[in-house]
Amino acid sequence: MTWVTGADGSPYGVTNLPYGVFRSNGGQPRIGVRIGSWVFDLAGAEAADLVLAAGTLCRPTLNDFMALGRPQWTSVRQRITELLTDSAHRPVVEPLLVPLDEVELLLPIEVADYVDFYSSEHHASNVGQIFRPGQPPLLPNWKHLPIGYHGRAGTVVVSGTPVTRPTGQRASAEGPVTGPSVRLDIEAEVGFVVGVPSALGDRVSVDDFADHVFGVVLVNDWSARDIQAWEYQPLGPFLGKSFATSISAWVTPLDALAAAFVPAPDQDPPVVNYLRDVPHLGLDLRLTVEWNGERVSEPPFASMYWTPAQQLAHLTVNGASLRTGDLYASGTVSGPDRGQVGSFLELTWGGAEPVKLGDETRTFLADGDTVTITATAPGPDGTTIVLGEVTGTVRPAR
Ligand code: CA
Predict the structure, then answer these.
(1) Active-site residue, from 89, 122, 123, 314
(2) Could you point out which of 171, 220, 292, 381 has its C-alpha 20 to 30 Å from the C-alpha of 374?
(3) pLDDT digits (tens, 9 = 90+) for 142-184
(4) How many domains does the chain have?
(5) Whether 189 and 64 share a structural domain
(6) Residue 138 — φ and ψ, nearest 5°?
């Protein structure tokens, strides 16, 4: 129980406590933690010696705090919980609570490297059927390693940032044409944020996932399908993806998700040694995708074939080092049913089956459209916690 007004029973109660960076009245960026409809100003709390984190909570992003490592992440979370639950602290803590509707939420991390995987068997199979009809839906390597690519860290933006329709080349019967994308899409994903780095040449074991990964964000990997289809062979995604990737303003710490780890789908054929994670655990995150306010899909993250621990081990098996602020996303989250897909490519089956939104129909995104991705997770003792949303509105091409 917390003494914070309105927070008990809210999905942002004291068992959740996601971290973010906010600004109020045009001031400097400050680290805070969300409780109910308030932001607890952790920069103010550390300045007043209420929380001790080596000064890292007074910085403009979460990176220095995330670099401290799991023992400090856990002790700071315990201290914040104590401050918000023991009413003896109320007189000094309450002045540090800022109403959420009075703050601007900023990008919570300085993104170091950005990697995007492709770990949903349902998504990969759907895309295979749409793009390579009559052939096996999965390519021969897919069940042997988590497929991924390196994306563009500098264009990762915080939820709420407008997304300008990208311009680029696409194929046509008369040859390539250049112009605004006409097949702009989303990809609903879950992202993992690295806190503790690794040394160049080292390999991070599947067992060390929780020592390196600080927490989870929701991701929208905006995708221009027409640009992507023309450019992606033979080297993979490039300009069809790099124009913008949105993440939630709130980073949910792994400590808040302890009750959400569930057995991941069995893997057949068996995976090679460095990918063998025991226990083999995914996360029971239930995503929703809203298109102009209408819920069009509910992708289940628990159905992902490759786990975040396997993705991290694969990302470093060649000795590539991790940096604080690295972000690796899961790939589009799609379940087995049409109402569970994480992209409009799948929802409209390549644009062949438009969906109805109110009085209008859509295949891909129109200018002015807004997409919002949210998620819930099991919390302790049968409760439910909410992950911060990721939303964005499409602006016309420039
Ligand atoms: Ca993606």
Answers:
(1) 123
(2) 381
(3) 999 999 999 999 999 999 999 999 999 999 999 999 999 999 9
(4) 2
(5) no
(6) -105, 140
Compute, in angstroms, the gap from residue 187 CA to the centroid of ligand 1. 6
Q: Is the separation of the CB atoms in 248 and 160 below 8 Å? A: no
Both 86 and 147 in one domain: the answer is no
Residue 249: partners with Cβ closer than 8 Å, 6 or more residues away: 20, 21, 105, 106, 107, 108, 158, 159, 160, 388
Say if residue 84 is in the same domain as residue 173: no
What's the gap in Å between 387 CA and the centre of ligand 1?
19
Structural domain boundaries enclosing 217: 114-395
Q: Please answer whether residues 285 and 297 qualify as being in contact, where contact means their C-beta atoms are separated by less than 8 angstroms.
A: no
| pLDDT for residue 131 | 87
Q: What is the CATH classification number for the domain harbouring 102? A: 2.30.30.230
Q: Please give the distance, rounded to the nearest whole angstrom, from the Cα atom of residue 49 to the centre of ligand 1.
A: 42
Ligand 1 mean position to 65 CA, how many Å? 28
Cis peptide leading into residue 234 (ω within 30°): yes
> Does residue 178 sit in the same domain as residue 215?
yes
> Does residue 36 sit in the same domain as residue 182?
no
In a domain, 119, yes or no: yes
Residue 123: active-site member? yes
Domain closes at, from 46, 75, 106: 106
Structure tokens at 92: 């000094």
Q: Is residue 24 part of a domain?
A: yes
How does pLDDT run across 85-135, given as a tens digit for each residue? 999 999 999 999 999 999 999 999 999 999 999 999 999 999 999 989 999
Whether 84 and 223 map to the same domain: the answer is: no
In the predicted model, residues of the chain with pLDDT beneath 50 are none
Distance (angstroms) between ligand 1 centre and the Cα of 289 equals 15
Q: Which long-range contacts (CB under 8 A, 24 or more apart) does 123-129 make?
A: 123/331, 123/332, 123/333, 123/334, 123/341, 123/342, 123/343, 123/346, 124/331, 126/334, 126/341, 126/345, 126/346, 127/345, 127/346
